[in-house]
Amino acid sequence: MVQELTLIREILAIITLMMGGALIILIYGAYRIVRDHTLLYFTYGLFALILGIAFSDLTGLYAPDLTLSYWTAVLARLVSVTGIGVMIYAVLRD
After folding, report:
1. H-assigned helices in the chain
2. d(CA 34, CA 86)
3. Do 40 and 31 contact (CB within 8 A), yes or no?
4. Measured between alpha carbons, how far is 45 from 40 in angstroms, rounded to an integer?
5. Is the per-residue pLDDT at 66 higher than 90?
6. 1 or 82: which carries more pLDDT confidence?
7. What is the largest CA-CA distance in the chain?
8. How far is the C-alpha of 76 from the C-alpha of 49, rounded, in Å?
9. Has residue 78 got a pLDDT over 70?
């Protein structure tokens, strides 16, 4: 049962990375047309957010150690918060 749940979690992490990558490519394409740096910063923030979301799940695939799992979850949250902060900065900067 645990193996099935782990497999589902890892498949969803890969799907998150793929869909997030597609969204980043679309936003970057819009940046190349408009040349507004807000979109570029937003792309950087979205990249960090997606990486943070999938990081702990993908690390669990290669290192199932409990201590390492805890610290990767903390690091993933920090990267996600950084990504959200960059996106907020992109929207609010003038």
Report:
1. 2-34, 37-62, 66-92
2. 20
3. yes
4. 9
5. no
6. 82
7. 52
8. 9
9. yes
